[in-house]
Write a structure and sequence with these properties.
This protein has about 190 residues and is α+β, with helices and mostly antiparallel strands. It is built from 5 helices and 8 strands.
Length: about 190
């Protein structure tokens, strides 16, 4: 019904729109069930998290090797974090974009119990390791273990400050501002 008033909604997968509607319905139900939860806040077009969720219906989402096919998109190459466990069925996919411009797809599978996995493994002869961790990023182990040096933020702090200074000098909304904003986001990500 909204597609006539807002033609840009036709570009999006219909299941993504249905999921948004379900999220809104859930937010209102939570509010009326317990007013302490708070009235649902409308998200800003400019400052909200860029993500959408779509469900698997009639094989509209396919995964083959290191490729994924989403509704209204063609095949996209991807880096897989890990292989799903056998006998699992893909249920939904949430695609989100980070401020640095990278896209991530979170795949939700159904039909596998973590309890079965824990019951299969035998932990009777497992080693115990003690770790004492200090806020400065120093950790002491009960066994001799090589630890890579921590403090990534402190190491890259000067670079981040430099990139943020460059950003503050740019004119808001300009092409250089957008490009510099991505550089700052990449520094934060690192």
């Amino acid at each position: 019904m909204y597609k006539k008033a807002y033609p840009f909604l036709k570009e999006v997968d219909s299941l993504a729109l249905a999921n948004v509607q379900l999220h809104l319905e859930k937010a209102y139900k939570n509010f009326f069930r317990d007013p302490k939860v708070g009235f649902p806040r409308f998200k800003s077009k400019h400052h909200s998290k860029n993500s959408y969720t779509t469900n698997v219906v009639n094989g509209n989402i396919l995964i083959e090797g290191n490729r994924i096919r989403l509704p209204k998109l063609k095949w996209i190459s991807m880096k897989k974090h890990r292989e799903p466990v056998e006998n699992c069925r893909l249920k939904s996919v949430t695609v989100s974009m980070e401020p640095s411009g990278k896209y991530f797809a979170s795949l939700l599978y159904e039909g596998y119990s973590c309890e079965n996995q824990a019951a299969d493994k035998d932990y009777s002869n497992a080693k115990i390791l003690g770790i004492d961790y200090a806020m400065q990023g120093m950790a002491v182990f009960s066994e001799e273990i090589e630890m890579e040096e921590a403090g990534f933020f402190r190491k890259n702090e000067k670079r981040l400050a430099r990139e943020q200074r460059k950003l503050s000098r740019c004119v808001k909304g300009s092409h250089n501002y957008v490009r510099q904003k991505k550089k700052v986001a990449r520094c934060h990500e690192k």
